């Protein structure tokens, strides 16, 4: 063993506070939809296969690519260049999403942050894992696995080469496990940041992997003919850059940051400069549950209200299936339209959203269900939002309609919170920013995949991702709530719940409390029946579902009430009949302690 080498590496490798401290792996599944279909029907493997959505071939297997099939080709063109192309309809994303979730779940095995990007891409930050591996690895003769973008002239003094070589071995291990357990071949990019890991990944494909060292980032970036190749540069930014004659990444490298500052914010100008040199310090953020679940349908043009209604109705059916799979009750709905400006030959998106009553949905045996009437109610809400977006007295031309549930009910857990059982809606997840065609910001890495211009796609902004570990579906709903761990729920302050005074009037208010996603304070709704819609976060209280049990106030969930012990049901009923019985002096804990051992009041004692 070379002592000199050993000394130099050990003094730097273990020090992560270096110039290039991170090791990131980007994994992309080869011809993803096609592989799902080929795994389902192995006989398709030997044939050129295209996946069709509407009149477009969104992807194809590598057999078909050999015949010149490209992504997003028109079916007619594809058949011209490959007459024996086998086409499979890929408009139902269910199986693709299921496979995507399996891959994401498998990647958790390495206990490192995994960020899901669209359906078939994931980043894994293996920095810490490598630090661990280094302790038990002989570093003197460490080799990379797969392809190397360029041989280094010298070793980077920070020790990143060794770390990245280990990362490449790890990438190979990860890819092998995906193949062994799920049957998918993949490509990987290995680099010290997300930007380079993603961009280097497709250099060798399919079923290959490529490593790039930091010092080659600048030169590698200069090979991109369009600035649009940089993941966080959207169409609007590209347009602005092109207007300044900055077309290639190399052009961007050469332009002075001060010039960029004339057209972009200072932060953005600096970020653009960093990106074009292959510099990116955005972290790999562990993907959680999707913040929104949405579907979109695009088409040439629709100009009649009844057609729009049909489109929404079809989307809603499919969206409800996704909600069922997800297992959370939606409490906010967003409608998106893409309007074509016939005069300007351009189009733009507009969205409106509103709250919906969680009582539209019911939970039976842990499974979310919705009645015909509930669906009708949703359609009414959707068309009301549509009417707000479109002036029906004038002609309109739409090229896309979208629906998304953007907030979900999360329930408090724990035996000590009887309020759980009574409130329909204690806390909600934050609203996701509406995805827009016009991306003007490069301040955060947007690695979203592009969707074809004419197909049904899921909302990508996490929404489509659905990486959430699925809850068991056939468990009793209440039991399920109790089983949820603390981390599973975004619970509001228990103290706040505890502070609630238990009398029927107050409880009536509690039922209308909604945890605002921004300030997370419990604030009463102004007017339950008010239709108060706005562009971004509107309140639209749907018709309250009434009378779950004879004596229950309307806000009480029938299933929940019925599942309570008889004793508690009686206590609640008597309390609703005579609120005075249940007055709880706020200041006197002595009085609380004096309450009957089984008194429901104990559930409202402030938590310490
Ligand atoms: P990609 O990763 O871009 O493509 P791919 O996995 O099919 O092929 P590659 O081997 O080059 O990685 O996209 C992932 C899936 O997303 C793809 O299988 C089909 C779908 N998709 C669309 O629905 N619309 C699109 O416009 C594109 C590009 C992909
Ligand atoms: Mg892919």
Automatic annotation (TrEMBL):
SUPFAM superfamilies: DNA/RNA polymerases, Lesion bypass DNA polymerase (Y-family), little finger domain. It comes from the Eukaryota. Residues 443-452, 579-598 have a biased composition (Polar residues). GO terms for biological process: DNA repair; translesion synthesis. Residues 24-234 form the UmuC domain. InterPro entries: DNA/RNA_pol_sf (IPR043502), DNA_pol_Y-fam_lit_finger_sf (IPR036775), DNA_pol_Y-fam_little_finger (IPR017961), Rev_trsase/Diguanyl_cyclase (IPR043128), UmuC (IPR001126). GO terms for molecular function: damaged DNA binding; DNA-directed DNA polymerase activity. Residues 443-473, 515-538, 576-608 are annotated as: Disordered. This is UmuC domain-containing protein.
């Amino acid at each position: 063993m070379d002592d000199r080498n050993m000394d130099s590496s050990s003094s730097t490798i273990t020090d992560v506070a270096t110039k290039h401290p991170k090791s990131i792996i980007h994994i992309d599944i080869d011809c993803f939809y096609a592989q799902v279909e080929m795994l389902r029907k192995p006989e398709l493997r030997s044939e050129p296969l295209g996946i069709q959505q509407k009149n477009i071939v969104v992807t194809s297997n590598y057999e078909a690519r050999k015949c010149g099939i490209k992504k997003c080709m028109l079916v007619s063109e594809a058949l011209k260049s490959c007459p024996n192309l086998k086409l499979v309809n890929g408009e139902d994303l269910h199986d693709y999403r299921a496979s995507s979730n399996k891959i994401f779940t498998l990647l958790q095995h390495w206990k490192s942050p995994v960020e899901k990007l669209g359906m078939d891409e994931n980043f894994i930050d293996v920095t810490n894992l490598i630090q661990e591996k280094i302790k038990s690895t002989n570093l003197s003769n460490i080799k990379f696995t797969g392809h190397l973008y360029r041989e280094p002239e010298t070793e980077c003094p920070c020790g990143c080469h060794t770390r990245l070589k280990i990362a490449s071995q790890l990438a190979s291990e990860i890819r092998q496990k995906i193949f062994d357990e799920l049957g998918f071949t993949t490509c990987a990019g290995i680099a010290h940041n997300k930007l380079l890991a993603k961009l280097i990944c497709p250099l060798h494909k399919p079923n290959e992997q490529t490593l790039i060292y930091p010092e080659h980032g600048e030169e590698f970036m200069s090979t991109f003919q369009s600035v649009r190749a940089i993941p966080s540069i959207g169409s609007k930014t590209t347009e602005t850059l092109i207007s300044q004659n900055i077309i290639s990444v190399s052009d961007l490298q050469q332009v002075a940051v001060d010039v960029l500052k004339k057209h972009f914010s200072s932060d953005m100008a600096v970020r653009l400069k960093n990106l074009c040199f292959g510099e990116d310090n955005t972290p790999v953020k562990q993907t959680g549950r999707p913040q929104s679940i949405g579907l979109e349908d695009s088409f040439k043009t629709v100009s009649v209200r009844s057609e729009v209604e049909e489109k929404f109705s079809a989307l809603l059916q499919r969206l409800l299936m996704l909600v069922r799979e997800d297992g959370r009750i939606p409490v906010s709905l967003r409608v998106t339209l893409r309007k074509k400006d016939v005069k300007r030959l351009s189009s733009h998106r507009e969205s409106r959203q509103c709250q919906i009553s969680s009582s539209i949905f019911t939970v039976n045996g842990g499974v979310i269900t919705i009645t015909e009437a509930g669906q009708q109610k949703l359609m009414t809400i959707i068309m009301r939002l549509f009417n707000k977006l479109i002036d029906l007295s004038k002609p309109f031309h739409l090229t896309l309609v979208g629906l998304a549930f953007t907030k979900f009910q999360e329930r408090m857990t724990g035996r000590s919170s009887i309020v759980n059982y009574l409130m329909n809606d204690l806390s909600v997840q934050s609203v996701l920013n509406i995805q827009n065609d016009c991306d003007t910001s490069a301040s955060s890495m947007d690695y979203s995949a592009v969707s074809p211009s004419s197909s049904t796609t899921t909302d990508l902004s996490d929404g489509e991702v659905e990486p959430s570990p699925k809850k068991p579906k056939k468990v009793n709903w209440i039991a399920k709530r109790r089983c949820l761990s603390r981390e599973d729920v975004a619970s509001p302050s228990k103290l706040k719940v505890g502070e609630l005074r238990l009398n029927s009037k107050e409880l009536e208010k509690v039922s209308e409390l909604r945890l605002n996603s921004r300030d997370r304070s419990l604030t009463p709704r102004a007017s339950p029946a008010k239709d108060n819609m706005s562009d971004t976060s509107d309140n639209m209280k749907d018709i309250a579902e009434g009378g779950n049990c004879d004596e229950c106030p309307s806000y009480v969930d029938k299933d929940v009430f019925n599942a309570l012990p008889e004793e508690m049901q009686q206590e609640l009923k008597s309390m609703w009949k005579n609120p005075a019985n249940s007055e709880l002096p706020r200041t006197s804990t002595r009085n609380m302690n004096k309450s009957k051992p089984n008194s429901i009041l104990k559930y409202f004692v402030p938590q310490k």
